[in-house]
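Dear H.,

Thanks for agreeing to be a second pair of eyes. The structure we're designing against is below in token form, covering all 982 positions.
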């Protein structure tokens, strides 16, 4: 067997799995076939194991070596006889500690949930175990120069470490560390030596326990460590100081080189472009780099040739970036035979690319799969968990009812019938409420339909009774009880009317089985956790589901693959697309550590946060060395301009400063190749023929237009006639929102109801003011309780009404002394000449004075219109006065009008009189008749937004009018629509 001892490496750009297998087989060439089975290969991840198996398959029929995970090395049952404790159990124990801490010091966990804090604390404990740190290292930290927060956090951390690190046998990372320490201690003395050759392949030694084991293996007579993506172009002086440069891609190798010496090449295979590797090596040198660029840059090879297979795509926004990536992958799929690997750190970009490929019915092989929380069972469980401690809103109810897993265990009602009834219920709740549906609402709705509705609504009413109960569940409760409630409610919803949860689809497919396994695991260890509230419980559920992913059982295209950055060492060859190369995307922003500051981590001997940047840089260095590489980024995101990734920036800056090596020209060619792909993507997205913008609509419909017109729509007819056309002629109504809010519209309706209730209580002019005020406030509380289900809005509106109650009561007594209310929210009507249209009105109030004239009132929660606005646009009160004069209200008959007044139910509660005389009233009526006649005769079209009150005006029918394709300055062209010959 050829020598196989010490440190070896493969350069960036080679197929690591194939090159490793080739090198191993070359070294085992003089050995019998069974000798290969005596080799043990330790790998860093399951993906590496799979890649090696496939590489061995390609090498032909062989007896395979033993391939194991390096994180699974164990000191053995003689040293640690007890098996390790599941990580979930350990996290729940930490969560209990954290809950006790927060009970005493709530300020320490402000803005964090208990499960999130437990997750981060567990990760910190893992770091301490893999790095061989213990309580003494925490006690050695001097907190004198740190903020009080860090001092308090460290005090708790010492307690947690004393509890968590006391028994190393309970945790897999501690067992790995113990095994590595035993190997480093015993193997040099010839104790417990491995029986055959041992190789560590594909690991960078980023964790202390792994690095220690790799050093022990490299020192074995028959041990070897094969490093991935090693920079053979980096000079020795750089290696000497690299251990302090945590954000450098090669920094993880420095301790190994210091211990085992400079690595040899595992095979003679060379990267696709050694010149490109040299360029990247120099560009990524640790700071300061300028002097190295100046000294070594002129020695680089011709950069035009080195970057001939690099393409730089700088899209305007992420959507365009995804479209261009999808087009590159589609091109490869059409040509066939060439594998393309998209490497992306941004899951959102991956979803965009996948959606773009789906247009052409192309499905790439996504190694990450779909996160379990985003599958149907995961979403269903999250939505059920969100019901706890929160009032049930219409949208939350409909999300559950429309979920594909709901009621799948029922044979009493079919899926189509269920969806039809759900649609009818949605329309009912949108139009009539209540904002927070309850069992009584469903019971009443059930009486207004057929037998199918009765089955569906009665079951749903029973479910709402259960949901209403859990909505009040806001206090911390034992975790096992919360899990039992979640499972019970989820299975009941999945079962449906007279259904069976086991027959439902909730736990049936791969995602359902995985979700059930996660919950069963939680149930098994729930007793170890703390009492938690509904918000923390939802966070815990998402955290546990997020750790799992589901790969769909569908056939993906054999040429197209999607991988994360960590898999670059395995797939950084062939054609590679490096996407999302912006700061915050790749590399991703560092997550803050709630337990230790950067200085405290350094004092404790723990890795600094910059280590994550260095690992990401190593992934980039390996991927950018592939045969053909596309570098993509978006210049802007949804919020602002983006900053190019630091590694891309360095490469571009270095190239731009080397004109003698063709750097600027090479960079221009990279961008030109990218521009071609951007142009192709834009051409694909561009319609085959230009679509002209819609003209400003001004339809002229056939007669009859509409039988009646409310007086409240007259101002709309003046300002936005198209809205009246859509509403009255086409019969379209804006759909009320799914989640009603205590907005200005509801406030106005509520205030009207309060004053109407006051008038219906029949006060008299001699009612004492204090008595009327008390009655007014009592009615306010009653109406608010009936109409406004939001406690905060009720309190706020009640306070505002109480502030103006004295003024409202005083003015009301004055009004009662002048006359009595004769029309209160009662409808009236007056036919309009010979136009076949009736003007209708439902005045807030008309009082008959002692001289038999009337005053027309209108309540305003906002600012009343001015006299000028009344003359030109807001005709409501003036037209109601004209209707009263024409006998439009049965309670009055024809009467003269004494005046118009607005009662402001906001502000200071004043009564605002407005100008009125018989001449202006007559002119208003005649003008209204002329306006209506122009639409009836077709003289005028219903022009969209003819005279909006402001440029920010937004109507319910703007999308129907296709506003935005035309501007307010565009002239309208009246056009007949419909059948004018019928």
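And this is the sequence the design step returned. I haven't edited it by hand at all.
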């Amino acid at each position: 067997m050829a020598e196989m001892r010490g440190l070896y490496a493969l350069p960036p750009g080679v197929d690591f799995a194939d090159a490793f297998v080739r090198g191993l087989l070359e070294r085992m060439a003089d050995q019998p076939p069974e000798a290969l089975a005596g080799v043990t290969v330790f790998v860093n991840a399951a993906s590496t194991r799979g890649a090696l198996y496939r590489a061995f398959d390609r090498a032909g029929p062989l007896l395979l070596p033993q391939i194991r995970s390096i994180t699974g090395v164990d000191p053995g049952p003689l040293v640690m006889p007890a098996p390790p404790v599941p990580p979930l159990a350990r996290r729940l124990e930490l969560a209990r500690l954290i809950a006790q801490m927060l009970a005493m010091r709530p300020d320490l966990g402000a803005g964090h949930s208990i499960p999130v804090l437990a997750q981060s604390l567990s990760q910190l404990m893992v770091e301490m175990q893999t790095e061989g740190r213990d309580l003494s290292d925490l006690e050695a930290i001097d907190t004198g120069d740190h903020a009080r927060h860090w001092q308090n956090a460290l005090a708790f951390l010492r307690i947690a470490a004393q509890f968590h690190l006391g028994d190393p046998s309970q945790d897999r990372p501690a067992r790995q560390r113990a095994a590595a320490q035993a190997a480093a201690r015993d193997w040099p003395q010839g104790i417990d030596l491995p029986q055959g050759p041992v190789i560590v392949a594909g690991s960078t030694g980023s964790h202390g326990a792994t690095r220690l084991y790799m050093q022990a293996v490299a020192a074995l007579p028959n041990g070897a460590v094969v490093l991935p993506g090693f920079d053979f172009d980096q000079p020795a002086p750089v290696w000497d100081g690299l251990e302090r440069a945590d954000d450098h891609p090669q920094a993880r190798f420095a301790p190994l080189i210091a211990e085992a010496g400079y690595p040899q090449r595992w095979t003679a295979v060379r990267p696709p472009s050694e010149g490109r590797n040299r360029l990247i090596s120099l560009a990524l040198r640790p700071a300061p780099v300028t002097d190295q660029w100046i000294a070594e840059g002129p020695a680089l090879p011709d950069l035009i040739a080195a970057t001939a297979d690099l393409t730089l795509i700088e899209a305007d926004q992420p959507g365009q970036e995804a479209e261009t990536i999808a087009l590159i992958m589609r091109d490869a799929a059409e040509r066939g035979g060439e594998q393309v690997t998209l490497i992306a750190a941004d899951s959102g970009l991956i979803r965009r690319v996948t959606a773009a490929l789906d247009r052409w019915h192309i499905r790439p092989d996504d190694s990450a799969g779909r996160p379990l929380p985003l599958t149907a069972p995961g979403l269903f469980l999250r939505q059920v968990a969100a019901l706890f401690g929160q009032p049930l809103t219409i949208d939350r109810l409909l999300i559950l009812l429309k979920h594909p897993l709901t009621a799948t265990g029922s044979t009493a009602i079919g899926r189509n019938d269920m969806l039809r009834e759900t649609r009818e219920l949605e329309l009912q709740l949108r139009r009539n409420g209540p904002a927070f549906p309850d069992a009584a609402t469903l019971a009443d709705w059930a009486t207004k339909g057929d037998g199918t509705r009765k089955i569906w609504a009665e079951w749903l009413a029973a479910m709402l009774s259960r949901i209403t109960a859990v909505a009040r569940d806001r206090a911390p409760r034992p975790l096992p009880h919360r899990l039992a409630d979640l499972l019970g409610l989820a299975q009941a919803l999945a079962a449906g009317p007279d259904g069976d949860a086991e027959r439902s689809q909730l736990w049936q497919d791969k995602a359902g089985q995985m979700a059930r396994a996660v919950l069963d695991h939680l149930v098994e260890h729930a007793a170890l956790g703390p009492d938690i509230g509904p918000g923390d419980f939802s966070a815990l559920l998402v955290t546990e589901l997020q750790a799992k992913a589901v790969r769909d059982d569908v056939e993906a295209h054999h040429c197209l693959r999607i991988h994360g950055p960590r898999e670059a060492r395995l797939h950084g060859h062939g054609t590679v697309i490096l996407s999302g190369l912006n700061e915050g995307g790749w590399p991703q922003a560092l997550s803050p550590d709630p337990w230790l500051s950067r200085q405290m981590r350094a004092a404790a001997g723990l890795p600094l946060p910059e280590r994550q940047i260095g690992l990401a840089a190593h992934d980039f260095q390996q991927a950018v060395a592939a045969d053909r590489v596309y570098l993509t980024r978006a210049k802007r995101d949804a919020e602002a301009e983006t900053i190019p990734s630091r590694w891309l920036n360095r490469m571009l800056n270095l190239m731009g400063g080397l004109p003698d090596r063709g750097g600027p020209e090479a960079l221009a060619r990279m961008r030109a190749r990218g521009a071609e792909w951007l142009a192709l993507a834009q051409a694909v997205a561009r319609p085959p023929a230009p679509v002209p913008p819609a003209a400003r609509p001004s339809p002229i419909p056939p007669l009859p237009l509409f039988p009646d017109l409310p007086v409240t729509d007259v101002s709309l007819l003046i300002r936005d006639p198209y809205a009246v056309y859509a509403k009255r002629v086409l019969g379209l109504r804006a759909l009320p929102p799914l989640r009603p809010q205590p907005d200005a519209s509801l406030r106005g309706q509520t205030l009207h109801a309060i004053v109407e209730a006051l008038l219906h209580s029949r006060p008299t002019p001699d009612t004492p003011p204090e008595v009327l005020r008390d009655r007014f406030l009592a009615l306010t509380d009653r109406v608010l309780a009936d109409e406004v289900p939001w406690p905060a809005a009720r309190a706020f509106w009640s306070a505002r009404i109480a502030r103006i109650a004295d003024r409202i009561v005083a003015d009301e007594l004055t009004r009662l002394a002048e006359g009595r209310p004769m029309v209160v929210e009662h409808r009236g009507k007056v036919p309009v000449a010979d136009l076949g249209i009736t003007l209708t009105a439902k005045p807030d109030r008309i009082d008959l004075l002692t001289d038999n004239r009337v005053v027309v009132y209108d309540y305003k929660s906002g600012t009343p219109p001015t006299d000028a606005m009344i003359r030109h646009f807001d005709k409501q009160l003036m037209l109601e006065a004209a209707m009263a004069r024409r006998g439009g209200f049965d309670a009055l008959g024809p009467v003269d009008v004494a005046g118009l007044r607005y009662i402001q139910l906001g502000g200071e509660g004043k009564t605002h009189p407005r100008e009125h005389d018989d001449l202006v009233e007559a002119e208003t009526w005649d003008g209204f008749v002329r306006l209506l006649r122009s639409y009836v005769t077709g003289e005028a079209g219903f022009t969209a937004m003819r005279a909006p009150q402001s440029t920010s005006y937004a109507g319910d029918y703007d999308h129907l009018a296709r506003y935005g394709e035309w501007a307010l300055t565009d002239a309208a062209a009246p056009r007949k629509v419909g059948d004018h010959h019928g």
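Two observations from my side: The two ends are 98 Å apart (CA to CA). The mean pLDDT is 90.

Warmly,
E.
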